[in-house]
Amino acid sequence: MKKYTCYVYERNRKFWDRYLVVADCELLAEVELKRRLDEETDTGSDSYDIMSVVECK
Fold first, then answer.
1. With contact defined as beta carbons under 8 Å apart, do 5 and 50 qualify?
2. What pTM does this model have?
3. S-S: 7 plus which of 12, 50, 51, 54, CB 3.0-4.6 Å?
């Protein structure tokens, strides 16, 4: 498992945010991020643009 920093932009309220995600690869990190956005935010993952996913060194 690797750690990824995921940078997102919330389109409705116009702000940037970042999430730390643990996953096996970059693709699974995006899937986990979308799941967390759906679970943890009021607007869900549809309101967010994933700008980049960067592996933490």
1. no
2. 0.89
3. 51
